[in-house]
Automatic annotation (TrEMBL):
Gene3D superfamilies: Phosphatidylinositol 3-kinase Catalytic Subunit, Chain A, domain 1. InterPro entries: Ubiquitin-like_dom, Ubiquitin-like_domsf, UBLCP1. This is Ubiquitin-like domain-containing protein. SUPFAM superfamilies: Ubiquitin-like. It comes from the Eukaryota. Transmembrane segments: none annotated.
Amino acid sequence: MAAAGRPVEMILEVKWCGSPYAVSVATTATVGELKLRIRDATGLPTKRQNLLWPDVDGALEDDVVLLSSLPVKDKPEVNLISLKENDFESYQALFWKQKRLISGEILIEDRRVRHKDFDGSLMNLFTGLFKLDILAIDCSIRKATKEFPVMISSFNTIKNFRHQNDVIVECFYKEGNQFRLVLSPQLDGTVQGWASAYGVSTLFCITDGSTKLSDLYRQIILDLCGVLMSLLKEGICARKVSESNLYLKVLSETPRLRVLIDEVEYLKDNAVAREKQITELWSGISNMVLASVKRCQVPSLSINSEGFCKFIGKQSTTLFGKHAIKKLNNYPDKWSNQEKGAYLIQLIAADKAQVWSLIRDSGLKWPKNENEKLPVELDALIKAAVGIGHVW
């Protein structure tokens, strides 16, 4: 294949509010770069843009390369729709349908330059170029080390898995006696590097001598659980997920999680063995978050944030995917005392039989006489109420 020269330009017909706009963009451009061109043509801010291909109701992420998603047509078209919720499953179906239309020999160019993390340290990722037919995409190359070997069996298990927060392993190759993984998109750094560069306050909020998860770190955990739950839904369980697997891609100045799943196994057929697999997975994630508190040398987590960490995986007993993530996201670790009070008032007005079943299943040991202690959570609520003047 000839060496990649200047990127080829293509013309997209962008339809918005019934009017067509001709937008010129490089074939190697991402959706985010296309949005900038569309902004110049239409005046619509990039944050308000959702791009939908004809006949597919699915918006695309900003870091997706156009040629891996565009239908191969003489006149590619894209519809611009503002404020439409993303439907990733539709995008995923389109991605695989169109990807098969591009075929040929894959060529990997290893530039042998290591990526720098946010804090300037070097990562075990090298810059590279993924070439296939007319497609040329910047990629990252992960090389096997003694600490982080490349598990080819795991790659074969998840090679068709796609999630908006996972690092896609495009392919692997062998150099000498060592395997290399070709990853996309190109990654900007690690979660650890982000904290080192911009301070632990980006991950933790310290108030009144205790520590809470920042909005960024909480979202990283939610996104990580989303990837792992999607794998479980496919009958696959990730193994040995650690902070070294957590990368960030900065989109519109906002860091977004990209997790590299490099070791997996199928869920066991035996129910007991399968439950053990899943329990160990979620315990590992909870322990990883708790260990990051010690590593960052911040005060212990508040009772609410610690409860959130221990709740990880508990919501997935009967639920996988979006519903389980919604349940985890609704955990009341960020509720104010006023919100908690309003919730308790709602419980009073609710159906008693339903409330009683929830209490029985909560795991809290409620006192049965005046000599027994209150649950820690209820005791904390009462003390907070007394602190602002409530008297019983």
